[in-house]
Design the sequence.
């Protein structure tokens, strides 16, 4: 079964504070495209260490948006990058595409 982003964690974290939820989503909507752009640049340069750093940053958003399986894939991908291996790149990037679509609709 495919995992779907959701706001469950944000709702729980906010304890009903809608302003907090809105602000957190605004930050994610602003930061995620920038982080993905940096990630893609480092991938294209073949810079494994910096790519791993951006996977780590993006991974926090996976967790915040309820992607537990995606979070595990991202962490495994980050560790692969530190071994100079792009294994799991396609899986990670599929999750990124799903997440980008999601944040445009919330």
Sequence:
């Amino acid at each position: 079964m495919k995992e779907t982003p959701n706001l469950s964690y944000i709702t729980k974290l906010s304890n009903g504070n809608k302003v907090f939820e809105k602000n957190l989503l605004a930050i994610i909507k602003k930061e995620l495209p920038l982080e993905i752009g940096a990630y893609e640049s480092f991938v294209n340069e073949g810079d494994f260490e910096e790519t791993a750093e951006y996977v780590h940053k993006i991974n926090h958003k996976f967790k915040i948006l309820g992607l537990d399986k995606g979070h595990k894939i991202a962490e495994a991908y980050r560790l692969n990058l530190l071994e100079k291996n792009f294994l799991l790149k396609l899986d990670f990037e599929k999750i990124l595409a799903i997440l980008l679509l999601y944040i445009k609709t919330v």
Q: What stands out?
A: The chain has one domain: 8-105.
